Amino acid sequence: MKLNYDVVIIGSGPSGIAAATALKQQGVHDIVILEREAQAGGVPRHCQHPTFGLLTFKRPMKGSHFVEHILKIRGDVPVLTGMTVVGIYPDGKIQVSCDAGLVNIQAKRIIIATGVRETPRHPRLVSGLRPQGVLTTGALQQFIYLNRQTPCRNPVIIGTEIVSFSALWTLRNAGVKAKAMIEQGARITANRPLIMAAKLFGVPVYCQTKLVEIGGLNRVEYVMVERNGQREKIECDSVIFTGEFTGEYTLIKGSHLDYRADTGCPVVDNQGRCSDAAYYAIGNLLHPADMGDQCYQEGMKVGLAVAKDLQCPAPKASLRLPIVFDEKIQFTAPSCIAADENLSTLDLNIRVKQAITGTVVVKSGNQVLYQKKHRCLPGRRIMLKGVNSRLISGNATEINVSIV
Ligand SMILES: Cc1cc2nc3c(=O)[nH]c(=O)nc-3n(C[C@H](O)[C@H](O)[C@H](O)COP(=O)(O)OP(=O)(O)OC[C@H]3O[C@@H](n4cnc5c(N)ncnc54)[C@H](O)[C@@H]3O)c2cc1C
Q1: Domains 1-118+245-311 and 121-241 share a fold
Q2: Which of 95, 114, 171 to mutate to test the pocket of ligand 1 (most atoms within 8 A of CB)?
Q3: Is the dihedral of CA 68, 72, 73, 77 positive or negative?
Q4: What is the predicted pLDDT for the residue at 128?
Q5: Is 114 in the pocket of ligand 1 (CB under 6 A)?
Q6: Does ligand 1 lie within 6 Å of residue 189's CB atom?
């Protein structure tokens, strides 16, 4: 097995494949993608809704077709499957678990593209027993689309994000009608018109309703919910936890890289570079969870930056200004700005904790870099386009983002 590369990419989802494609187009050929699953492609492999491809191929595509296309475009860059990266160390050294045991691989640059997952039952602290029949949308899609199995007959869906409606649709494709959708908030998290889909399928959506218990000995038999101060039992055979996305941060948390203490998300600058200049991070790992196309576009951009960096490495002691934000904001991506490079404008991807309409202001000291009114909803990508980083002053120590 080859143990030395110019670039190693961890994860073969849309962002990792895109980075490989951009690197190859820039003449970097000594690349490998390491993937822990048996198949390349990441999440879209098991997404059968035509919600991919519009940005990249200007037409709607199912996730599996999107993956086929992008894998074809990446050409002969090898994707080694069954390779789980278990450790990342200074200066581009990583440890990989595979059939051969534990192997150490080194590269001039490593791109981390480990993606995103939904929050399963345990971190949501739902009481009750531990029967079979508790899934996430991802697991449901794998059962139905990859394994052609129907894991439930009358499930309850927890959550109302876009992916929750994907779960509804996936069930429908398997001939299964959900018993109900449960939302703790006052309105659905996804765009309001999506509630029509639930109505059309005859599935009630209960807002301001909390799941408090899962019942059943061997198999789920019911859920207990709390609504208007009253407890109500809904009989069902499964519970599908949807959304509440979180990045795959396990590798980062065990590493030497700087990361946000509250989440584990790596600190990256506007080029996608981590605190160790040998490492870059891309895709939904940084902003759980954007669309597949958006991750692909970002992977292309960072792949280009890495190719440039290999030809002409950036100064090691690059000044990185942290992006500090107010309590309404959940995160920004990137989380810092490399200030001593030729800055022009940049795009800042932000997320809010609660619904708010206001003016998003990005400042460096008293200098306004961006100011625009946005209607911000939680769980939604809010892209601040054209933040004028030319205006960052030489003695700036941080960038501030607030919603007023
Ligand atoms: C259930 C679900 C449904 C979704 N539906 C849609 C949809 O309909 N439309 C849409 O546009 N977007 C959808 N998304 C968003 C989706 O995440 C993005 O479309 C896209 O897949 C993100 O790309 P990525 O490359 O960042 O990560 P991913 O696609 O998540 O790929 C990450 C890859 O890294 C691998 N990996 C992780 N850790 C390691 C490791 N330690 N070693 C080696 N490999 C590793 C994983 O196995 C995976 O293959 C959905 C997401 C989820 C979770």
Answers
A1: yes
A2: 114
A3: positive
A4: 85
A5: yes
A6: no
Is the C-beta atom of 37 inside 6 A of ligand 1? Answer: yes
Beta bridge partners of 324: 400
Percent of the chain with pLDDT over 70: 98
Residue-wise pLDDT for 305-340, tens only, equals 999 999 987 766 568 999 999 999 999 999 999 876
CA dist 362 and 366 (Å) reads 10
Homologous superfamily in CATH for domain 121-241? FAD/NAD(P)-binding domain (3.50.50.60)
Average pLDDT of the segment spanning 282-297: 96
Task: Give CA–CA dist 329/44, Å, rounded.
Answer: 28
Least confident of 183-192, 243-252, 285-294, 315-324: 315-324
**Fold adopted by 1-118+245-311:** FAD/NAD(P)-binding domain (3.50.50)
CB 163, CB 135: distance < 8 Å: no
Is the CB of 14 within 6 Å of ligand 1? yes
d(C-alpha 114, C-alpha 250), whole Å: 10
Give the CA distances from residue 17 to residues 36, 185, 231, 302, in Å, rounded to whole numbers and listed in that order: 14, 36, 48, 11
Domain boundaries defined on the chain: 1-118+245-311, 121-241, 319-404
* Closest to 268 (Cα-Cα) out of 256, 280, 253, 285: 280
